[in-house]
Amino acid sequence: MTGNDFVVTPWEVRGDVDYGKLIEKFGTKRIDEKLLLRIKKHSKELHPMLRRDIFYSHRGFDRALTEYENGNPFVLYTGRGPSGHTHLGHLMPWIFTKYLQDTFKTKLLFQITDDEKFLLNERLSLDDTRDFAYENILDIIALGFDPKNTEIFLDTELIKSQYKLALKVAKKITFSTIKATFGFSDSSNIGMIFFTSIQSVPCFLESERRGKDVPVLIPCAIDQDPHFRLTRDVAERIGYPKPSLVHCKFFPSLQGSDKMSASSQESCIYTVDSPSTARKKIMNAFTGGQETIKEQREKGGNPDVCSVYQYLLYIFEDDDRKIKEQYEQCRCGELICGDHKKYLSEKVETFLVRHQENREKAKDRIEEYMVRD
Ligand code: TYM
Question: Tens digits of per-residue pLDDT, 17-43?
Answer without folding.
Answer: 999 999 999 999 999 999 999 999 999
